Amino acid sequence: MAALQQPDGAVGDAPPPSKSFAAVVTTSNGVEAFHPRTISTYRGKPALRIAKKEILQLARPFQHALVGKFSYSRPPMETVRKFFLSLGLKGDCAVALLDANHVLIRPTMKEDYARLLIRRTWFIKSSPMTISKRSFDFKANKKVTIVPVWVSFLGLPLPFFRRNPLNKLASVLGRLLKIDAATGDLRRPSVVRVLVEIDIARTPVKKIWIGDEKYGFWQHVEYESWPAFCSFCERFGHVQ
Known about the structure:
With 240 residues, the protein is of the alpha+beta class. Among the domains are: 61-133, RRM (RNA recognition motif) domain (Alpha-Beta Plaits, 2-Layer Sandwich); 146-236. It is 19% helix and 32% strand. The chain has six helices and 15 strands. The protein has helices at residues 21-24, 52-59, 77-86, 110-119, 163-171, 181-184, and strands at 39-42, 45-48, 66-70, 93-99, 102-107, 121-124, 127-133, 146-154, 175-179, 191-199, 207-211, 216-220, 222-224, 229-230, 235-236. The strands form five sheets. A five-stranded antiparallel beta sheet has the order 4-5-3-7-6. A four-stranded antiparallel beta sheet has the order 9-10-8-13, with helices on both faces. It has a two-stranded antiparallel sheet with strand order 1-2. The longest helix has 10 residues, at 77-86.
């Protein structure tokens, strides 16, 4: 008589070899679904480890997002949305509720973003709304100090009157938002005027060295209406 055979998976079978954690998170084609160190702990609590560059990549689609703050009463959202439609913006602009006093504003065009942000305070049905740049870690009680400021470079050589050199020059101060029309078509070659997104909590740069170690020149920087900001109480409108 043939020996009895136990069916697959019976109790008498030897247990299958255990898989490592790395093997479990690896897809069938051998590519890891995520790095084994992605899920970890921080101060004894579960943590998801993400590099700063990855966070910046995730935030890139929201680089033109703004936050509108109503310090007193907020009009109904339908009224707020109709207000933005009445502005005649060049592109679309989505408006959504963040909390009772804050709305998320997402213009699709950089020109609209600059227009909304540079004015800072708008009135909707007599209710003041202060607009600020949305930081990735936005919190209602955190003051964002990045604002658009018009910057002038008096006597900048003509070869720099192009977008690429101006973009690099503005990057020393912040992020270039707009080039003045008279600068773009060389109607005023005596001065360059650009709108730059700057962190006003930092000391303003007064001059920039352009060149290398052996050849170059100092370019002076002038700011139009630098916003008053108190670093002590973190409020706009006055200095410490």
